[in-house]
Description:
Layout: E1 2-8, E2 15-20, E3 25-30, H1 36-48, E4 67-73, E5 79-85, E6 104-109, E7 115-118, E8 137-139, H2 141-146, E9 148-149, E10 155-157, H3 160-169, H4 173-184, E11 194-195, E12 199-200, E13 207-208, E14 210-212, E15 218-220, H5 226-252, E16 259-265, H6 273-276, H7 279-291, E17 297-302, H8 306-312, E18 321-329, E19 332-338, H9 346-350, H10 363-376, H11 390-400, H12 408-414
Parallel strand pairs: 3-17, 3-18, 6-16, 16-17
Antiparallel strand pairs: 1-2, 1-4, 4-5, 6-7, 7-8, 9-10, 11-14, 12-13, 14-15, 18-19
Helix pairs in contact: 4-5, 4-7, 10-11
Amino acid sequence: MLKTLALKGVGPASAFGPVEFAPRLNFITGDNGLGKSFLLDIAWWALTRNWARGVMAVPPVGEKKPSIAYAYSKTTSGDVEETSIFKRTEQIWPTKQGRPPIPGVVIYAAVDGSFAAWDPVRNYWKDADAMERPRAFNFSAEQVWDGLEGPGGIRHCNGLIHDWVLWQKGQDPAFADLIKVLDTLSPSGTEKLEPGQPVRLGLDVKDYPSLRTPYGQDVALVHASAGMRRIAALAYLLVWTWREHLLACEQTGRKKAKEIIFLIDEIECHLHPQWQRRIVPALLRVMQTLTGRKVPVQLIVATHSPLVLASAEPEFDEEQDAVFNIQLRDGQARVTREPWAKQGDVVNWLVSDAFGLHQARSAEAERAIEAAEAWMRGDKAALPAELKTQAAIHRELQRVLAGHDEFWPRWLVETRQLPHGSGGA
């Protein structure tokens, strides 16, 4: 498992971290542009020694001794602790040579639909005594579906469209695994992700995988919703990665992975709210579903969704789980571990430190209520130019607030438009 990350001279701040990750759930929140995705990219590099999507983090010119310090658990007892100092003349982040001793599979799902997978058996640094192998499998969004080729035309993966149909027609055990994983990742107990029969598109002789819709029709997966396609791609990559891992273990005589680490950027991307509140618990269960045994899972996810955090409340354990928030302070991004507290519902999560809204209303409603608050406490200097009078504020509140909004009774009582003890607007 990834234990810590600390950055100096690279990223959104001169010093970023240290971030001490929890062994199970790790939520990273914060405004856009403050480094959530960057933190996931660095986590991937620290675990696998390669850059997701081939894009290296380059420190600004003039930074002296930029560094990335990290620690993770290894196959034997104890932790690996390393610090890489950027070599500007060579434009590299040097690391110790040899096979990384990480005991598990690492999967990174990016928000653009790309994926990366690292297998402790198949991916490692080449040396004089080892076959040349890819350092990781980096899939663009298109390669997940159509297949991945390496240098020299070596086929690493046939892709979702080919494998899904091949597994299904051949009644391969991998297809049974795919069915189980799709079921685990489904949005609800009544709305299941269930494979349909392979279909053809027009006069194309190529068969495409499909999903069985609630109304009984098999719809080609390429025509499914963006949320369904993202989850289907994740399910396929999980099955493909684990299947190839087991085959590699048989061929090399190595032991199976002891854990799995998921890095997911904007886990809620394309997902309906019903799905957002189920995806995290589902990912914690999915490896047990796939392997038939309890495999430790570490989840590190960036999220903008209060529903995602609300979904963790029933099983959040402060000894195993953590919430981090990235905020801008004095012109620098700062990441802090937030004290855990159940918020009860999505509205309370929106106004918590994790998301930082003053109110869970529209920006106009927030502005009108703030003007009303200022008027009630007699702070005329805080009133906007167009909301200087009680009448103007009242008209604006009528325009932007629902008739049952909880602010109405207080405003109407304060302005003597409603007797004390009454309710409603």
